[in-house]
Specification:
By secondary structure, this protein is an alpha+beta fold. Helices cover 59% and strands 13% of the residues. It is built from 4 helices and 5 strands; from the N terminus they run ααβββαββα. The protein has a 3-stranded antiparallel sheet with strand order 3-5-4. The protein has a two-stranded antiparallel sheet with strand order 1-2. Strand 4 and strand 5 form a beta hairpin. It is rod-shaped.
């Protein structure tokens, strides 16, 4: 069983460092600039496999790139579906985290308003009780 068939149903996000993210982003931008027409993908680019390139090897190990054997060109490297979805998933996760932070801030503000209202009601009841309006 090869790596591609093992990862076919996998939805585990890529764990990339900054250099790997930059290289993956550069490859995606390069592919989009050459292989798209009117923002529609026409074909996928293939990059030469360079075993001496450490960054390319790291991206292959991280599943951002896939190695394929091409009968005409030999061994090539293509961007995997996990590589394509890495940046949109990262943006979505960041957006969800910001929404959670806003929700928490609203909850804290609402709790503070509620506690302030309770304190004001308590003070008013204390003043009314001290003035003897409720008679004993």
């Amino acid at each position: 069983m090869n790596l591609a068939s093992q990862l076919k149903g996998s939805t585990v996000p890529l764990k990339l460092n900054l250099a790997q993210e930059r290289e993956l982003h550069r490859l995606i931008d390069y592919e989009r600039s050459l292989c798209e027409a009117n923002d529609d993908p026409v074909f996928r680019c293939a990059f030469p496999y360079r075993p001496d390139n450490d960054l390319q090897s790291e991206l292959i190990e991280a599943r951002g790139l896939l190695v394929k054997n091409d009968p005409r060109h030999g061994t090539i490297v293509v961007i995997s579906s996990a590589g394509y979805s890495h940046f949109p998933e990262k943006a979505r996760d960041r957006r969800l985290e910001e929404e959670r932070a806003r929700r928490d801030a609203r909850l804290i503000a609402l709790t503070a308003l509620y506690s302030g209202a309770c304190m004001a009601i308590g003070v008013l009841l204390g003043l009314i009780g001290a003035s003897g309006l409720f008679g004993r």
